[in-house]
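Dear H.,

Thanks for agreeing to be a second pair of eyes. The structure we're designing against is below in token form, covering all 323 positions.
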């Protein structure tokens, strides 16, 4: 009997081919821009969990997104658009799932260097959910999808947006919700939403690309795709990838045995992992570019502060907040 080993067993993969640490990367980036108040990410020890009350093929399933409805009056929002704070939305919104919707992600800190922004199927799986309902994979798609704002504090998300999203989900008679995250803060916001819905009896599965942020917060079910931010629902212009990604999420929704269940998609973004070194990496950006980005960030902060002040100072009408 030979004691020799197959040499290929020791051909380890590239050491950088691991999930990006977005919390640390973001902290280093903002320090490089000159902001000296590191962000404190949400973190919980206990995680609520409810099992899906019905078989998946009998369940009413909803969708929650952080993508923003396109508004041509709010500046660039299409493929290749820069970060655009004007495109943000500040209150929960809902849309008819039977219709087509142009929702975009120019308002979030997605990976613009490696994300095309040309196929909303990468971040908004509504058409596929309609197909899965027609195929009997899920019992029924809810009549509405909902948008979760990501521009407020964690306190506002928990005290205002989460209760409103729960109210709408309950009105829709949902058994389960699929949540699709985009930027780092989107991942935290939807983690908080998933926790809140789960604590109130609605099963959830979060689809995302920022593993550290989601697991740091703590969610019931998480489908992790090791893709650039903005592609949580699959590769752009690749229906096979998108179908496989959504199917994995729905399988996880039905099969997770307990809270904090993470499943990693087996799909790879590319043969090389070099793309992971680019996102918010000050070592790969010139001082001149950092200065430009700092000015851009200051402008965005000013726009957000202006919009928040406008909203906070407005007089609520009797119908304000109704779906």
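And this is the sequence the design step returned. I haven't edited it by hand at all.
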């Amino acid at each position: 009997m030979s004691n020799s080993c197959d040499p290929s067993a020791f051909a380890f993969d590239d050491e950088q081919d691991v999930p990006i640490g977005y919390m640390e990367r973001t902290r280093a980036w903002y320090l490089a821009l000159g902001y000296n108040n590191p962000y404190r990410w949400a973190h919980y020890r206990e995680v609520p969990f409810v099992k899906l009350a019905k078989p998946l093929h009998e369940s009413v399933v909803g969708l929650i997104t952080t993508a923003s409805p396109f508004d041509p009056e709010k500046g660039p929002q299409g493929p290749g658009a820069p970060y655009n704070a004007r495109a943000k939305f500040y209150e929960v919104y809902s849309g008819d799932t039977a219709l087509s919707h142009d929702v975009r992600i120019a308002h979030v800190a997605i990976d613009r260097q490696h994300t095309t922004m040309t196929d909303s199927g990468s971040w908004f799986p509504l058409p596929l959910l309609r197909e899965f309902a027609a195929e009997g994979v899920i019992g029924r798609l809810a009549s509405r999808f909902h948008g979760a704002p990501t521009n407020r504090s964690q306190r506002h998300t928990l005290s205002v947006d989460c209760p409103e999203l729960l109210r709408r989900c309950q009105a829709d008679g949902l058994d389960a919700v699929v949540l699709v995250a985009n930027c780092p803060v989107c991942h935290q916001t939807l983690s908080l939403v998933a926790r809140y819905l789960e604590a109130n009896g609605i099963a959830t599965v979060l689809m995302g690309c920022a593993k550290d942020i989601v697991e740091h917060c703590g969610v019931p079910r998480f489908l992790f795709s090791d893709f650039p931010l903005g592609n949580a629902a699959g590769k752009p212009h690749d229906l096979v990838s998108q179908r496989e990604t959504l199917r994995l999420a729905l399988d996880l929704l039905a099969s997770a045995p307990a809270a904090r269940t993470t499943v990693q998609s087996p799909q790879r973004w590319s043969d090389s992992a070099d793309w992971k070194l680019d996102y918010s990496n000050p070592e790969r950006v010139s001082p001149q570019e950092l200065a430009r980005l700092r000015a851009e960030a200051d402008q965005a902060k000013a726009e957000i502060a202006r919009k928040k002040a406008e909203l906070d100072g407005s007089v609520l009408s009797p119908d304000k907040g109704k779906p």
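Two observations from my side: The CA atoms of residues 56 and 138 lie 5 Å apart. The radius of gyration is 20 Å.

Warmly,
E.
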